[in-house]
Sequence to fold (453 residues):
Amino acid sequence: GAGLTGAITALMMVQRGFRVTMFEKRPDLREEFKREEEEKAGQPSEFWGASLSATKRSINLALSTRGQEALRRVGLLDRIMAHAIPMTCRAMHAHDGTLSFQPYGKSGQHINSISRRLINTLLLDACEARDVRMHFHVKLVSMDTNAQLTLQRADGSRFTARGRIVLGCDGAYSGVRSSMLRVSRANFSRHYIEHGYKELTIPPTAAGEYALSPHTALHIWPRHEFMMIALPNPDKTFTATLFAPFATLDALRSNAAVEDFFKAEFPDAVPVIPQLGEQYFAEAAGSLVTIRMAPWNLRDKALLLGDAAHAVVPFFGQGMNAGFEDALAFDEMLAAHGNDFSRAVPEFAEVRQRAGDAIATLSYENYVEMRSHTASAMFLLRKKVEGVLHALLGSSWIPRYAMVAFTRIPYDEVVARSRRQDAIVGAVTWAGIAAAAAGLAWGAAKLLKRSRL
Ligand SMILES: Cc1cc2nc3c(=O)[nH]c(=O)nc-3n(C[C@H](O)[C@H](O)[C@H](O)COP(=O)(O)OP(=O)(O)OC[C@H]3O[C@@H](n4cnc5c(N)ncnc54)[C@H](O)[C@@H]3O)c2cc1C
Fold:
């Protein structure tokens, strides 16, 4: 697969001295995007929301430390960061349009909005420049127990290929994984959540400025059962994504119904999203899946990385980051074992699978936090308590979000540490509330006594 994980893994392997051949069933996305731009030139210019490609998926992504470290390893970090927009906080939109802000971390810490298209294009350009042999329009049909591949060209003709190892970076619907399941006793689960998503574009204002302020924030409209988020793009647009149960999404059947829904739930967003109905119906709702697989390897012959091994729901903004970190962690494992696949592959698969399972859990939990808790006063109070503890205790107390987004602490360790921290924060918060209540009661009693005198 020549997606995000496949391209960065290829670069790591080439850097390590291996020859890499990449097979991708789709056309070269760089060609496809060029064609789309040409087609778009013929569209009415105000039609921002139209998505012309069936393969287009989440126009921008949040890039954070794990992904950045992997990009640094292949020498592309600075080039990619030149196109990133820092997002320092969540900007929460209440029903009445009131904004409140929650910083993501300490001052200077932020996540980054980056175009999926740009990052994949730059990775593929680097693959080409570094002699990765890339074959587009070539689909994996199957892999046998010795990791020999049967592949199919666009004209239907088939051929076989074999290498020292097959790295399955072919996404949530991985063909490598399907073949591994046929020839081994691996365990596998696939879980669709009941929520789907729709993407909408918020164009710049007439003055050519971002329509949401500040533009250096991830905007969220939390509404308990559903939510909308918006991430900035360098062209002064925002990409908004509505996440809601399919039942809610499917119940909106006309432009008028969509507009009424938005007026009721996201009134301050309505003026900034033109052609709401047209945008809403331009694409079918996307679905969200969690994949777990164990083990990730077939002896030392084949190994899954990225979404193929651990597709996660996107609420921690970690799918790509985790895939990039897979590539980096595999590179580190190969370095530790002198490029010996027979030792590096099983060890990597075991250690990293624990991390993959943990980010799946964290990602789902963050959905509940984003759509629901971010709007609650208790949640905001707990965040404040966490911030104080982090300031006082430094690296021995790092809030869960910061551990995921701003460190390389293994995801499974993040889960264990945050469970311990949650228990303490809960106790401290309630103790604070109890102390405040006791203080209030004491003050009230004193006032009462005085008023009786
Ligand atoms: C709405 C949404 C928002 C997201 N936001 C974020 C975010 O903010 N931050 C973040 O880090 N992640 C985010 N993600 C997750 C991120 O998009 C994925 O984790 C990432 O794209 C996975 O990359 P991949 O290369 O592993 O898989 P893919 O991107 O799926 O690439 C797999 C490639 O393999 C090819 N392929 C598949 N089958 C075959 C075959 N049989 N033969 C040959 N080629 C094949 C495919 O064509 C594709 O090119 C989001 C996802 C969604 C859906």
Observations:
- The chain is about 45% helix and 20% strand.
